[in-house]
Design brief:
The complex is a heterodimer of chains A (422) and B (125). By secondary structure, chain A is of the alpha/beta class. Helix content of chain A is 20%, strand content 36%. In chain A, a hairpin with a 6-residue loop joins strand 14 and strand 15. The longest helix of chain A has 19 residues. The radius of gyration of chain A is 22 Å and the shape is globular. Chain B has 125 residues and is α+β, with helices and mostly antiparallel strands. The chains are: A alpha/beta (422), B alpha+beta (125).
Chain lengths: 422, 125
């Protein structure tokens, strides 16, 4: 069986950045396993610009951003296998994968980095009544068809869900000659970035209907139209608000789900709020030597933060392989507790013996809060208290903790992160 | 006097901006909570620009389509002229990131460049 120090599952933005970072931190035997025919993952179909403002201080398109990392992977001579599907990982870190050249094969890893990304929530998860006609696509599927394969899914489009991919596709379909009639969003706020609402909807006069959902799909062979209705606070359609839109295509942009079947099979403990693994300060799961980063860990809005997180995972996996943090040094763990408006934190525990000088804690809030404070309580004491004009579920938040700061509280057990109103 | 309403995109607050105009002249920006909002509003009402991204067909390539962008931002009013001008453009593989495929698209003075490397299809080599 071939031996590697680190095997990375997934060659998208997370896997690429993790590989580059692990290599730069002194690990030579790295293997990336990618199921698509090329590296770069979802970036390959995200042809719009706006990537890399944080990482490269310039605005790149998705494929250009991916290329920056692919070039590094090639320069650093990191091994990768394309068209390769990982089937299983054992507790002993034997990775079982298959492709057309090698057939079914096993590789032994010292450390594994999970970087499988996420997939889109589908129609089946929404319980929309009606037939199952052609013309219903997830926004990402439509994006792949239009941008990579050169097909138009339809001419008259309604989009359900205002996630970023839905917004981006509203513009893309418009530029390709389709008529996007409306974007409907179940929640009273959009799940997408503000700039996307302005540049993808407002620029083209596409209406966004908040607190609306699709209650019926008309058409048996092909979508002929959909009925929208306003929803009340409980998410129930309000009678009398129904409106019919004729269309041949319905795109769904209703959320992303981290792809963790393999993680769960090896017994990685999951966080119900993120549908991703629970990780410590090193982005390591409950299984020693198995790390996670990117959208498989929690869904990100900006790829820049994926790269940053993945670089940390790569560095930490490298230091695990080099045994820089012997078990006996792994003393006490501080627990992070999301509360009052904060849905989750990544990581969920911090070990001061293993953390870097500075640690980024990422989290999301559960609603729109204006003129609020984001606070961190070290046990009972409020230590961080930052005023924010607005926080929203669509934009990931972060908080920096320093090692020095944590060491000042030797008995610290729990850090509670919460939103506080004025 | 004319009033225009915008949403600021500089940060998640998304201030609702009101711009008072006298012809082409900006008289007053209100609704912003920081200086960046005013700068954005002034640019947006006098000379709004966007980078346009699209795809074009590839001949003999490992993929059938390649992504492209305007090298710089172009006036917002020229977006549809730009995508129309790209409609029947084809390129021959290989193409590299940065290759110019259309010069001075829709008379904007801006070139359209490739944003993805596409190698020659193995079938043809």
């Amino acid at each position: 069986m071939k031996q590697y120090d680190i095997v990375i599952i997934g060659g998208g933005p997370a896997g690429l950045a993790a590989a580059v970072s692990a290599k730069k931190n002194g690990i030579d035997r790295i293997l990336i396993l990618e199921r698509d025919k090329e590296l770069g993952g979802i970036l390959n179909q995200c042809i719009h610009n706006g990537f890399g403002l944080h990482t490269f201080q310039e605005e790149l398109t998705g494929p250009e951003y991916a290329d920056r990392f692919i070039e590094q992977v090639k320069e650093l001579d990191i091994a990768y296998k394309l068209n390769t599907m990982v089937m299983d990982i054992s507790r002993e870190k034997v990775v079982t994968a298959m492709n057309r050249e090698d057939g079914l094969f096993d590789v032994q890893a010292k450390a594994v980095i999970l970087a499988m990304g996420c997939r889109e929530r589908a129609r089946g998860a929404l319980n929309i009544p009606g037939f199952r006609p052609a013309g219903i696509y997830s926004a990402g599927t439509a994006q792949r068809l239009v941008n990579m394969e050169g097909y138009m899914p339809g001419r008259e489009v309604v989009i359900l869900g205002s996630g970023d991919i839905g917004l981006i596709m509203a513009r893309r379909m418009t530029l390709e000659g389709a008529k996007v009639k409306v974007v409907a969003e179940l929640m009273p706020y959009s799940g997408g970035l503000k700039r996307n609402i302005v540049q993808c909807l407002d620029d083209y006069g596409i209406p966004l209907k908040l607190s609306h959902t699709v209650i019926d799909i008309k058409g048996k062979e092909r979508v002929e139209g959909i009925t929208l209705a306003e929803v009340d606070k409980g998410g129930k359609p309000v009678p009398g608000t129904e409106e019919f839109y004729s269309c041949d295509t319905l795109l769904l942009s209703v959320g992303l789900i981290p792809e963790n079947e393999i993680s769960e099979k090896i017994g990685v403990e999951m966080n119900r709020a993120t549908s991703g693994p629970k990780v410590n300060e090193s982005l390591e799961t409950n299984i020693k030597g198995v790390f996670a980063c990117g959208n498989v860990l929690h869904v990100h809005d900006l790829v820049d933060f994926v790269s940053e997180e993945a670089a940390a995972a790569g560095k930490n996996a490298a230091s695990y392989v080099k045994k820089e943090h012997p078990e006996e040094r792994n003393g006490r763990e501080i627990r992070l507790n999301p509360e009052n408006g904060v849905r989750y934190t990544v990581p969920v525990t911090i070990n001061t013996a293993r953390m870097d000088d500075e640690l980024t804690v990422r989290f999301r809030v559960d609603g729109v809060y204006k003129n609020c404070y984001v606070s961190a309580y070290f046990d009972g004491e409020r230590v961080l208290h930052r005023r924010r004009q607005v926080v929203a579920p669509g934009e990931m938040e972060e908080m920096k903790l320093t090692r020095e700061q944590l060491l000042q509280y030797p008995d610290l057990e729990t850090i509670t992160v919460k939103v506080e109103e004025e | 006097m004319e009033e225009k309403n915008l949403t600021c995109i500089n940060c998640p607050i998304g201030c609702s901006l009101t711009v008072e105009m006298e012809g082409e002249q900006v008289i007053k920006v209100s609704g912003n909570t920081c200086k960046r909002g005013e700068i954005y509003a002034r640019k947006e009402v006098t000379n709004p620009t966007r980078i346009v991204t699209s795809t074009v067909k590839v001949v003999n390539g490992q993929s059938d389509m390649v992504s492209v962008k305007t090298k710089e931002d172009i006036p917002k009013g020229k977006i549809f002229d730009c995508v129309r001008a790209l409609k029947n453009v084809q390129v021959e593989a290989p193409v590299r990131i940065g290759d110019v495929i259309v010069k001075n698209i829709a008379d904007t003075g801006v070139d359209v460049v490739v944003t993805k490397n596409v190698e020659v299809s193995r079938k043809n080599t």
